[in-house]
Amino acid sequence: MTFLFIILRLLCQALTVAIFIRSVMSWGSSGQHTTLAIILYRVTEPILAPLRRIIPRVGMLDFSPMAAIVLLQLIAYLLP
Which of 18, 29, 36, 50 has the greatest count of CB atoms below 10 A from its CB? Predict the structure, then answer.
């Protein structure tokens, strides 16, 4: 059972890093169609899309990546 929790924590950390990298890459529009950008989109969009329906954009700012990172870190922290 402990092994499962370790894997879940690592998954939360990996998703946090992926969301962070995707957010940083979105600041520059030149790398939107690279292989890395496509992979990051496919991995992170299932987490970010539901949050975007709940959290509205404020101007040009999208706060869903920040909310996703907070939730992932909270889940990782609460795992035994």
Answer: 18
Phi then psi for 29, rounded to 5 degrees? -85, 0
| Domain of 53, in residue numbers | 2-78
**pTM check: above 0.70:** yes
How many C-beta atoms surround the C-beta of residue 44 within 10 A?
21
Mean pLDDT by 10 residues, the chain (80 residues): 94 98 84 84 96 93 96 94
Q: How many domains does the chain contain in total? A: 1
